[in-house]
Amino acid sequence: MATANTNLSAYDKNTIPNAKDFRFGIVVSEWNHDITEGMFQGAFDALKDCGAINENIVRWNVPGSFELIYGCKQMTQSYDMLDAVIAIGNVIQGETKHFDYVCEAVAQGIKDLNVHGNIPVIFCVLTDNNKQQSIDRSGGKHGNKGTEAAIAAIKMAQLRKDSKF
Ligand SMILES: Nc1c(NC[C@H](O)[C@H](O)[C@H](O)CO)[nH]c(=O)[nH]c1=O
Ligand SMILES: CC(=O)[C@@H](O)COP(=O)(O)O
């Protein structure tokens, strides 16, 4: 189902684990910062709404979405007590094929961190054809992908905790 047919911000707290004991990392790309800041706020607010505390949320910034790979890798290695990391970026199609390479690299890089690492890394990267699509998905008419990513982070933190026993 396409995003246009749903609301990225919709969640039922009754189906979400309490996040009070979980620690989260959030790595935010500075490219298209108006969009990424909107997604960060959506993620931060959802984590808090589900019980997370400010002291358990750490944020790093990176220049662009391509650097999310290294930033998330370093965060998972610097803070081994984290329960989940959220990678926030916004890639918008330009005139060249660079969009394709950045999107593919970031998707593959975040995938690799999940395969080889011990901490779930949530793919909160908007890969849009134009700015309006990004606006619509970072707090606009289709909701906020940051909110969706926060809920995914909480669920994956709980799965990681449960899978240790
Ligand atoms: N065009 C966008 C970029 N490009 C920059 C790359 O992500 C990277 O920082 C650069 O190639 C240096 O390694 N990044 C975005 O996040 N969004 C874009 O639309
Ligand atoms: C994803 C990008 O790097 C892209 O937005 C840059 O724009 P252009 O392809 O026109 O150089």
Core attributes:
EC 2.5.1.78, transferase, Rossmann fold, alpha/beta, riboflavin biosynthesis, binds the ligand Nc1c(NC[C@H](O)[C@H](O)[C@H](O)CO)[nH]c(=O)[nH]c1=O, LS/RS_sf, binds the ligand CC(=O)[C@@H](O)COP(=O)(O)O, four-stranded parallel beta sheet, 165 residues, 6,7-dimethyl-8-ribityllumazine synthase
Description:
The protein is an alpha/beta fold and 165 residues long. It has a single domain (32-162), classed as Lumazine/riboflavin synthase (Rossmann fold), CATH 3.40.50. Helices cover 43% and strands 21% of the residues. It has 5 helices and 6 strands. It has helices at 33-49, 68-78, 98-116, 131-136, 145-162, and strands spanning 24-29, 57-62, 84-92, 121-128, 138-140, 143-144. It has a 4-stranded parallel beta sheet with strand order 2-1-3-4, sandwiched between helices. A hairpin with a 2-residue loop joins strand 5 and strand 6 (143-144). It starts with 23 loop residues before the first strand and ends with a helix. The site of the ligand Nc1c(NC[C@H](O)[C@H](O)[C@H](O)CO)[nH]c(=O)[nH]c1=O has 14 residues, from strand 3.
Order of helices and strands: EHEHEHEHEEH
Estimate the strand proportion: 15-25%
Question: What is the CATH first-level class name?
Answer: Alpha Beta
Whole-angstrom Rg: 15 Å
- The DSSP helix count reads 5
Mean of all residue-level pLDDT scores = 96
* Quantity of strands, as a count: 6
CATH-assigned fold name: Rossmann fold
Report the major sheet: 4 strands, parallel
Shape: globular
Low-confidence segments, given as residue ranges, are none
Assembly state (oligomeric): single chain
| CATH architecture term | 3-Layer(aba) Sandwich
Order of strands across the widest beta sheet? 2-1-3-4
**Span between termini:** 34 Å
Determine the structural class based on helices, strands and strand pairing: alpha/beta
Count of folded domains: 1
Helix content: 40-55%
Compounds present?
A: the ligand Nc1c(NC[C@H](O)[C@H](O)[C@H](O)CO)[nH]c(=O)[nH]c1=O, ligand LTPLIIQW
Say which CATH homologous superfamily is assigned.
Lumazine/riboflavin synthase
